[in-house]
User: Fold this.
Amino acid sequence: MATLVNVDGDIVPPAQARVSVFDRGFLYGDSVYEVIRTYRGQPFELDAHLARLAHSAERIGLAPPWDAPRTAREIGRTLAAARAAGGDPAPAPDAAPWNVGEWYVRVVMTRGAGEIGLDPALAVNPAAVVIVQPLPAPPASAYVEGVKAVVVGVRHAPAAVVDPSAKTGAHLNHVLAVREARARGAHEALLLDERGFVTEGSSSNVFVVAGGRVRTPPLAAGILEGVTRGVVLRLARAEGIPMDEVPLRPPELEAADEVFITSTMREIVPVTRLGERAVGAGRPGPVTARLHRAFRRLAGGPPSAMLG
Ligand code: PMP
Assistant:
């Protein structure tokens, strides 16, 4: 397994992967991206990710250099090249079994380089990049023991500032949210909107369980429509677990029996500490574990290590 980068169709090792310093992705975060992972070597929910990439590009008026079929082909070529490059690293001793031997795929499309200036019309040469690397995923302990999350002081950008349904490279407030979370010893930062409602994690969607019902903020809360969030909503329906998309405030997080976060890289991870307080019994709860078992069945491979 090797890290390889596809830059505009040329597959090269990381040290040779270059884009211009005049690229607007570098200068302004004027780009869109997706993070996809594999199961048994195959990209998971690829169509949903490619549809969201097209949506993100459309929302910011970026003409994608590759269409969806070409993007899928380039991802496939890059994965095949990385697999063929061999030199597999030994799996981390604490890796969850379903993450061993799998791949992380990041697709970035920028508006391109051009004369310096904010005007998007200055952009020429839109760039497309695919980064493929061995999957860096949470250790098994994250699923068995849960993780700590904190509600950070950094607020979520209002929908009127940056359309939250577009996954763009303009990410500074989430970088600062993670910085704050790490300083407080937490795995994930949870962001509030300017009115104090819970939105999402820095790179995850958030759910609470109270009295057997699952609740998560609605898309109207100004959040990314997470692909994993969508999978979890479908799984809850199939499992007969009541699920409400409703606005949440921090006291509802603190009073919840269970809290969990979802993302492509993490699947479903229990949050067992919120700041300095335990969530519920301080262990992954039964509803989170049930949903993770269902997720593991859907994605295939080893069963959930979550006890619940
Ligand atoms: N919200 C934000 C802000 C994110 O960056 C991510 C990660 N892509 C998510 C939610 C989770 O989305 P997904 O399940 O599609 O990875």
